[in-house]
Design goal:
This protein has 1294 residues and is an alpha+beta fold. Strands 1, 2, 28, 29, 30, 31, 32 and 33 form an 8-stranded antiparallel sheet that branches. It is found in: Membrane. One of its GO terms (biological process) is intracellular protein transport. Keywords: Membrane.
């Protein structure tokens, strides 16, 4: 295959007005030279360097005598050239050109008979490689009639006249009546015999407008004056005009303008004025021509100017067809009609006239003439030179080149790695343009330009490259080249039949330039490249046409119709490796009628009609040969030769598997047995690229019973799938094909008349297409076996999703349900797999809402699939169904489901999904508001996909709003209003939503409360950051009793563990009581009775038992709640705490000492939370973080602020803080000296808190007594009077 690359080169032509017209350029038969014929000159162009190296102009006197130049063509030896003038004269020239050798100091050339020649090579000697050394007029031939066309055929010149005759001339100008034929008589005889065109009136002369000689098949195509096409066939090129000449008529063609013949495939491309290109192929048996397929103009806006201007097959391999249309489109097609690339802007200039196209000899570039309309006439303006990259399979379709996509230019090789074909290629499209670019060694390519063959050895990371002469190797992993030691040996041979790798040995088919000997040599990559290091050489009497290597076998096809197979083996004798070959098959393919020139490819494989039959000891089952597009299979069977007493093989009669085949892909390794092979269906299949007919897969159908049962015969089925790329590589185990696509890029800022071509590697998965074809044929069991075998592929889910999507779109487009619906079978095929729910959801998200009913009618209700996903914990999958449920079900159902999944996402910290769910809730709420108009489309992001729903397709039921009922809070302060509205978080700002539907605030608030209660401060901060959840607003509006700290000591210890924050001091449990640390009881006694004593002078011993009481709680451990008066409690109770171990604190302290950087980070983090608690008036938590940081000032300031508040909430907070500090003091006395010293430093603060609480208790007693007296007075007024008491008995309130 050929792929355009880069911008085309534009070559300006300086042509005078009198020399403005031009004729079709003529390519040299074997040199990269192009002759451009103008009306007065012949221009010689070096296509390798795009350089003009010679211009010949006839004497002015000859123009009046002979006329202006009209047409020209070469002799097949390239040493003679013929020109046809406008008035019917023929001039034959002798031409000789020589390649310039720049190493020579002096160059002397004989310029005989070229007085009117300008040798441009002497002026531009550094930019062209050829020089015209001889150009002489040999003979002039004149006819009495006008010559309409001319062509060269073998050693003859064929010309047609206006009288309806075809004449055959020798190159010396000789002609006779026996070498002429009346084409008019033949055409009318053919018309009468076929009765296709009835003859009316007298017969008119048939004038041949164009002649197109053909060597395979032998004959010539002609276009007559009414646009019809005929083929004149003959059995002998030297006796063409005799009674054996046959005329074949192409039925249905009446507007032909150009013809190009593909000799390897024996097909003809006929361009028509209607814009069609009809491809015709000759029937092997009858010889008649049949229409194979039609190529249309790729321009969708077809108009009257879509006539075909020119078309031509690529030179050498003839694998692509270039077609130029009048509307400026230039397209490249494969042999059987697959469109590879298209240029659509060749007519950017004002009123351009596009001329003929010509492939260069090497096939790497395509030359196009373009004229511009100037003053009413066309003036020759420029050449457009399009550059192409070739696939390595174009010339060398060996098995080792089928594993990777390999392209090459004349000097560079591009290798696309196989490792990125599957998962990486699907997930990261940026890898499409990645390839390994290898520049061929300059010393080799300068002398042997261009590259002809490339063979890759992926195992050893070696690359073999063959140019016009010799070859070279490259270790492309190290970019190290290996050339021939002796340059003479390198230039002494050329590779013609192919090159291939067998392990570390390179097998080369070559022909010597001097003696024309043909041989195959074996060279090791570990040895030097020279004749003395050749491991083995096999001589052949005829040229080797094709070779290939499979396992340890070498296949060879020669020009004398021999088909040979060698078994290769390597033995080691001492320190030297010895290579031996055993000829195991020697047969001829001449009896089958195959021409060596028409064999496209040949390879060995294990494919056989009996798929379960064991292969022979050589690992061979068949030979696959592509002849003219027909894939033939020769099965190989074991054979014991009595003469040699060896086990050999023999071939059976060929069987045609398919037609119209461009490339054959077969498994390059020996597949294991059916039981151990991972994917036998895919690896044992044949993959055939058939151009316009798609990709054909010859798939084995293994028996359903025991494979060892001989009563079951294996079967094959031919499946056809259509791909968007031209396959260049097949990964059999992955069911993936890889190819090249060409992007045409247009840059507005750069004034270019043609787009920039960028080749890129692309892949396509084919397993889903195979499964679809099997299900259509009711082969469900085979489809299930293939599906299970592919379950371990990284892109397996995508395969099944693509299968559902393709079937769904195809059947949903039909409207009415069909009797043989395929979607239920597809669902049953996928249902057993664990990702069935995910696959259905992904497919639904990428399809229209109108087809959801059909999809979920077969797959199940969306709500049921949602429940299954939630049971399995697949939150992302469950989220996919929210939009579906919201669209199909009632809104209340969607709200209930979204609350469930939002809670689950918060518990699993799936913040991206939480964000998308919140946006989803907002979108639903906005659409359901009565005062908000419903937009026709709503884009709802879930996951990474933007979904669009069409609301007018579904009628949403209106929801009745019940009255709001506010639950009574048992712990709510008296002065806090019950109907206080909690402000919404920042992410819900400006969102008008009914309060009963405001589930986001409730869910997030409940989760935040749970995290704060469990002291998961970091989780709370992460939630706030990811969900834009304002902690300050939430804490300010949260109920005090919901966020109250139950156990200060327990919370402080958990914060130490959370932040890995070291203790300020340590004390082991059960420490000796003779330490200078006060017990909590004596300390608080001292607060009341020893106010003025200094802290550092306190010295009192205490004995506190650590084994008396252990009080546990759900949070790990806790202390009993302490009353407001510490003194009385501590005089009566001795309490101890439950600790994990005394080593825990030592570990925290040691870790903090050894990691000062982490401590600084933790300190910043704790200060952050402390600041949050301060701004939100969360005093208890602010005091706790202050104690953690030993920030005495902040603790004192916070407690003072709380004590200054006069409401009941402030009193409750002071009481809670007092109890918490008491809790910490008891825990610190037993575990941490540092906190004891810290608390001793706040003696006055603690005393103030006790006094505050005592005063509040006294005030409370007074209030209660007054209320009691008031109630008594009221009762007395309503009851009978009682005796008065003495004043001494009155109540006194103290």
């Amino acid at each position: 295959m050929y792929f355009p690359t880069g911008w085309p080169k534009v070559i300006k032509l300086n042509t005078s007005d009198e020399d403005s017209s031009y004729i079709k350029p003529c390519r040299h038969p074997y040199l990269p030279i192009l002759i451009l014929i103008t009306s007065r000159t012949l221009q010689f162009w070096d296509t390798r360097n795009s350089t003009l190296f010679a211009v010949y102009k006839r004497p002015d006197s000859t123009f009046d005598e002979l006329g202006l130049n009209m047409y020209g063509c070469w002799h097949r030896d390239g040493e003679r050239f013929v020109i046809l003038t406008k008035i019917g004269h023929i001039i034959i020239f002798a031409v000789h050109m020589k390649e310039i050798n720049y190493s020579e100091n002096s160059q002397t050339y004989s310029k005989e008979g070229i007085d009117f020649l300008i040798d441009m090579s002497t002026i531009k000697s550094n930019s062209c490689d050829f020089s015209l050394t001889h150009f002489e007029e040999l003979v002039r031939i004149s006819f009495n009639t006008i010559i309409s066309s001319i062509a060269t055929f073998g050693d003859y010149i064929i010309l047609s006249t206006q009288t309806g005759y075809l004449h055959q001339l020798d190159w010396d100008g000789q002609s006779s009546s026996q070498m002429s034929v009346n084409i008019t008589r033949l055409v009318h005889h053919k018309r009468d015999s076929t009765a296709t065109i009835p003859e009316e009136g007298p017969a008119k002369n048939v004038i041949i407008k164009s002649i197109f000689p053909s060597t395979s098949p032998l004959g010539m195509f002609v276009i007559v004056n009414d646009g019809e096409v005929y083929f004149l066939a003959s059995s002998d090129i030297n006796a063409f005009f005799n009674d054996s000449t046959k005329l074949y008529y192409f039925k249905g063609i009446i507007d032909a303008v150009d013809i190009s013949i593909n000799y390897k495939f024996k097909i003809a491309a006929i361009g028509c004025r209607s814009g069609q290109v009809q491809i015709w192929k000759q029937d092997v048996d009858s010889g008649n021509w049949q229409n194979s397929h039609i190529l249309d103009n790729p321009d969708e806006n077809t108009s009257t100017n879509n006539q075909v201007l020119s078309l031509q097959w690529s030179t050498g391999d003839e694998k692509v067809l270039a077609v130029l249309w009048m509307n400026g489109f230039l397209s490249i097609f494969s042999v059987f009609g697959s469109l590879i690339s298209t240029y659509d802007e060749l007519d950017m200039n004002a009123n351009p006239h596009l001329g003929p196209i010509n492939w260069t000899k090497d096939g790497y570039s395509l030359w196009l003439l373009r004229q511009v309309n100037s003053h009413g006439s066309f003036r020759l303006n420029e050449f457009l030179v399009f550059n192409f990259l070739k696939s390595a399979l174009s010339f060398l379709p060996i098995l080792s080149n089928q594993e990777n996509v390999i392209l090459h230019s004349p000097t560079t090789v591009y290798i696309y790695p196989k490792s990125t074909f599957c998962k990486t290629e699907i997930e990261h499209q940026q890898n499409m343009h990645f390839c390994n670019i290898i520049q061929v060694e300059r010393n080799y390519i300068m002398k042997n330009w261009p590259i002809k063959m490339v063979a890759l050895n992926e195992r050893y990371k070696y690359l073999a490259v063959a140019g016009s002469n010799g070859l070279c190797m490259c270790n492309y992993s190290k970019n190290k080249w290996k050339l021939y030691v002796n340059e003479t040996q390198e230039m002494s041979f050329r590779c013609n039949g192919g090159i291939a790798w067998w392990n570390e040995i390179l097998v080369v088919s070559s022909t010597t330039n001097s003696s024309q000997k043909n041989n195959i040599t074996f060279n090791s990559l570990h040895e030097k490249l020279e004749d003395s290091q050749t491991l083995l050489k096999i001589n052949f009497p005829q040229r080797v046409c094709i070779l290939d290597v499979y396992l340890d076998n070498l296949l060879v096809l020669t020009a004398n119709h021999k088909l040979l197979i060698y078994h290769l083996s390597k033995t080691q004798l001492g320190n030297k490796n010895t290579l031996t070959t055993d000829l195991i098959l020697n047969t001829s393919y001449e009896e089958y009628g195959w021409s060596p020139y028409n064999i496209i490819s040949a390879s060995m494989s294990t494919v056989q009609t009996e798929v379960l039959s064991p292969v022979n000891e050589f690992g061979l089952a068949s030979i696959l040969i592509n002849v003219e597009g027909y894939l033939m299979m020769l099965q190989i069977v074991s054979h014991y030769d009595l003469h040699s007493q060896k086990n050999l093989v023999k071939s059976l009669s060929p069987v045609c598997i398919a037609s119209g085949v461009e490339t054959v892909f077969s498994y390059p390794y020996l597949p294991p047995g059916l039981g151990t092979q991972s994917r036998p269906y895919l690896s044992q299949a044949l993959w055939l690229a058939c151009g316009q007919a798609g990709l054909k897969i010859w798939l084995p159908l293994y028996p359903q019973e025991d494979p060892r049962n001989p009563s079951y015969l294996s079967k094959w089925i031919m499946l056809t799938i259509y791909t968007r790329i031209q396959p260049l590589s097949v990964l059999f185990e992955d069911g993936t094909i890889a190819g090249i696509e060409c992007d045409q890029l247009h840059y507005d800022k750069i004034k270019r008349s043609v787009a920039y071509s960028l080749p890129r590697r692309n892949i396509q998965l084919t397993v889903s297409l195979i499964l679809k074809q099997l299900l259509k044929r009711n082969l469900n069991s085979h489809a299930m076996r293939i599906t299970y075998s592919c379950a371990d592929l990284p892109h397996f889910d995508y395969i099944l999703e693509h299968l559902i999507h393709s079937v769904l779109e195809e059947e949903a487009a039909q409207g009415a349900p069909t009797a043989n619906a395929l979607l239920p079978n597809v669902i049953e095929l996928i249902r057993p797999f664990p990702n069935f729910i995910k696959i259905v959801g992904e497919c639904a998200r990428k399809t229209e809402i109108a087809v959801w009913t059909y999809l979920f009618g077969a797959a199940g209700k969306p709500k049921e699939l949602f429940e299954l996903a939630m049971e399995k914990g697949n939150l992302e999958i469950a989220a996919n169904y929210l939009l579906i449920v919201e669209t199909i079900e009632q809104p209340a159902v969607a709200y209930r489901l979204v609350r469930r999944i939002l809670n689950a996402c918060l518990e699993s910290s799936n913040w991206p999904l939480c964000t998308n769910l919140i946006q989803f809730i907002q979108a639903i709420a906005k659409n359901e508001l009565p005062q908000s108009p419903i937009s026709p489309k709503v884009s709802i992001p879930i996951g990474n996909v933007q979904l669009q729903t069409t609301d007018h397709e579904i009628d949403f039921p209106k929801k009745t709003v019940p009255p709001r009922v506010t639950p009574k809070k048992t712990h709510q302060p008296q002065n806090t209003p019950d109907d206080k509205k909690i402000p919404r978080p920042q992410f819900m700002a400006n969102l008008e939503i009914r309060e009963e539907e405001d589930i986001v605030e409730k869910v997030l608030g409940r989760h935040a409360r749970r995290q704060l209660t469990n002291l998961n401060l970091r989780e709370l901060a992460v939630m706030s950051s990811n969900l834009n959840f304002s902690l300050v607003n939430w804490l300010k509006n949260e109920d005090y009793f919901h966020i109250k700290i139950e156990s200060y000591s327990n919370a402080l210890l958990q914060l130490h563990t959370l932040f890995k924050w070291p203790m300020p001091g340590q004390r082991s449990m059960g420490q000796d009581s003779n330490t200078n640390v006060k017990s909590p009881k004596n300390y608080f006694n001292e607060i009341e009775f020893n106010d003025e004593r200094e802290i550092d002078t306190l010295s009192m011993t205490s004995s506190v038992s650590t084994k008396n009481v252990q009080v546990r709680s759900d949070s790990g451990y806790s202390l009993p709640k302490v009353a407001s008066c510490f003194r009385s409690e501590m005089d009566q109770v001795e309490v101890t705490t439950y600790l994990d171990s005394e080593d825990h604190f030592a570990e925290l302290s040691e870790e903090g000492e050894n990691n000062s950087v982490d401590l600084k980070h933790c300190e910043k983090e704790i200060k952050f939370y402390k600041e949050i608690f301060s701004k939100s008036d969360c005093h208890e938590w602010h005091i706790l973080t202050g104690i953690l940081l030993l920030d005495k000032h902040s603790v004192v300031e916070t407690v003072s602020a709380v004590m200054r508040s006069a409401d009941q909430l402030g009193q409750n907070r002071v009481k809670g803080i007092s109890e918490g500090l008491h809790d910490i003091s008891i825990w610190a006395f037993h575990n941490c000296n540092g906190y004891v010293e810290f608390l001793l430093g706040m003696k006055k603060l603690l005393e103030s808190m006790q006094n505050y609480l005592s005063d509040q208790n006294v005030d409370e007693l007074k209030v209660n007594r007054i209320e009691a007296v008031s109630m008594t007075s009221v009762d007395d007024s309503l009851s009978p009077k009682t005796p008065e008491y003495d004043s001494s008995s009155s109540c006194t309130i103290s």
